[in-house]
Every structure is written in structure tokens, then in C-alpha cells.
Design goal:
The structure is a single chain. By secondary structure, the chain is mainly α. The chain has one domain. Helices cover 71% and strands 0% of the residues. The protein has helices spanning 3-35, 50-67, 71-90, 97-100, 103-118, 125-129. Helix 1 runs antiparallel to helix 2 (50-67), helix 2 packs antiparallel against helix 3 (71-90) and helix 3 (71-90) packs antiparallel against helix 5. The longest helix is centred in the first third of the chain and has 33 residues, at 3-35. The radius of gyration is 16 Å and the shape is globular.
């Protein structure tokens, strides 16, 4: 097998792996906020607060990305949510992401922006539906 063939076969599959793993980790942030799982020392946010609303984006949007449903628009929205979260909640604490706790928000923002452009990959409901949302 040559490099071009390997790239053609594995790139869409690894795109799906990236989407699934990132979405599962993202969902864990939402389940922690809304359902207390995994357990947190800080407790959950107040209903209708910005962190509570973000938790719903994390759970619902994350679940949609796990299965690859409407990947491009969902990923685009979640990328914006993470940019908003970074500048609103993290950047005021410090200009350095490693100090302000915003490094995950930055990574999610750019991974989701990539998914918005690249699609869901081989293993996605978008692909199974024959949708234009595929990679």
C-alpha cells in the first residue's frame, strides 16, 4: 500500500475517531454540570445561568456529535459556544490559558471548527443518511 491509499482509507476513519472521542469528553463536562456525574466538589450551576445553559449545549450537542448527526452545523455552533465561554469565563482570569483554565475550551473550539469544515467522517449518521454533512 502506498501513502496515498493509506491516507484515503484511514483519514476519514480517524476523523470519526476524533469526533467521537472529543464529543464524549465534551459531554462529560455537561453531565457533570447538569447531573453531577462525574461528581464535582463545586456542585451544579443555578438553573438558567450561563453555565447551566452551556451544560445543555455540551450534553445535547455532544450527543449529536458522538453519533455524527448534523455534524457540520452542530460543530459550528459548539465552536462558537466554546469561543464565547473562553472569552467570558476564562480570559478575564489571566492571559495565559494554562493559568486561566481555558485550555480545554480553546481545544474544543478549534476541534469543533475543524469538524464544521471536515464533516463527521466515515462512521457517522450523516454518512449513513447520505447527507451533505459527510466528509
Amino acid at each position: 500500500m502506498n501513502a496515498a491509499h493509506l491516507n484515503m482509507v484511514w483519514a476519514p476513519r480517524l476523523l470519526s475517531v476524533l469526533r467521537i472521542v472529543a464529543a464524549l469528553i465534551f459531554m462529560a463536562h455537561g453531565t457533570q454540570k447538569l447531573m453531577g456525574f462525574p461528581a464535582s466538589l463545586s456542585g451544579g450551576p443555578a438553573a438558567m445561568s450561563l453555565p447551566w445553559i452551556a451544560g445543555w449545549f455540551e450534553v445535547i450537542g455532544g450527543a449529536m456529535l458522538v453519533v455524527g448527526l448534523f455534524t457540520r452545523p452542530v460543530a459550528f455552533v459548539l465552536s462558537g459556544v466554546m469561543a464565547f465561554a473562553y472569552w467570558l469565563a476564562h480570559a478575564p482570569r489571566s492571559p495565559f490559558p494554562v493559568l486561566n483554565g481555558g485550555d480545554a475550551a480553546i481545544l474544543f473550539c478549534f476541534v469543533f471548527l475543524y469538524l464544521a469544515a471536515a464533516g463527521g467522517g466515515t462512521w457517522s449518521l450523516d454518512r449513513m443518511r447520505g447527507s451533505a454533512q459527510t466528509a
